Amino acid sequence: MVRKMTAQKQHFDIIIIGGGPVGMTAALFLCQQGFKTALLDRLDYKDVLKETYDGRTFAYAYGSKLILEKAGIWSDLEPVAEPIQDIFVTSEGPGDGLHYGAQDIASQHPMGFNIETRHFRSTVYKALQSQDNFHLFAPCEIEEVTFETNHVDVVLKNQKAPLVAPLALAADGKNSFVRQQVGIKSKQIPYDQKALVLVMDHEKPHQNCAYEHFLKTGPIAILPMKGNRSGLIWSLKTDRADYYHSLSDTDLATEI
Ligand SMILES: Cc1cc2nc3c(=O)[nH]c(=O)nc-3n(C[C@H](O)[C@H](O)[C@H](O)COP(=O)(O)OP(=O)(O)OC[C@H]3O[C@@H](n4cnc5c(N)ncnc54)[C@H](O)[C@@H]3O)c2cc1C
Fold it and tell me: Which member of 18, 134, 147, 222 has the lowest number of beta carbons within 10 Å of its beta carbon?
């Protein structure tokens, strides 16, 4: 008699595919609600959590701060979060642009906060590690995701036992593998643009101001950081971005 062998499955309440900011934060909330949660990412968290992995910052609107407060991690993030008090939006066109200020809001709270992604990741990860129902699969390679009527099966390369859960959350970013597996179509429009992302020191206090300057070639965003620095995100035509990227720090500072 030939008996078909079925590998034992690993059961979870939810499987989150993609452990970026969205996947990690969702995992934390779900664990806190008592759900047995599997978080999958193809990157090695040992690398992702290194201080040098990512020099970018994320700007969090005030509403996001309230969500992080609810997750119980805002007290850890606050010391590394730079408040954004004023936002100036300008363009190449006519007009003086727009100004949004914390003083215009009745409760006078900051418009948002700017946090270096490395601080955000390590804080959320630390909170996740204290949850008994959190299970991390990283790095991992997903071979197949199958959606059945009442559950989702996820087969990982080099893992004999597939993961199974009644629900899967796709948080695997803009080129989502899960989206393709489900058959959701997407349309990509090339802009022939790249963004230069850098951190600069100021000679004068930045006074917690953020700037969005919309140029025909793409927007420039300047967001205040701790230590009288700002993060600059400069979208440009690809050839200009490559040119600026090739410059020395001193020459690039002069261009800026
Ligand atoms: C220059 C720049 C500046 C930005 N500034 C801001 C900002 O100030 N504020 C802000 O809110 N947003 C900002 N954004 C946007 C921000 O990066 C995204 O909104 C954010 O990263 C989305 O988070 P996410 O978790 O959905 O996806 P991602 O950050 O893309 O994370 C997806 C995760 O899924 C994993 N993954 C992907 N495919 C697979 C797979 N097949 N198997 C397993 N794992 C997989 C990836 O390794 C990754 O860890 C900026 C973006 C850029 C490029």
Answer: 147
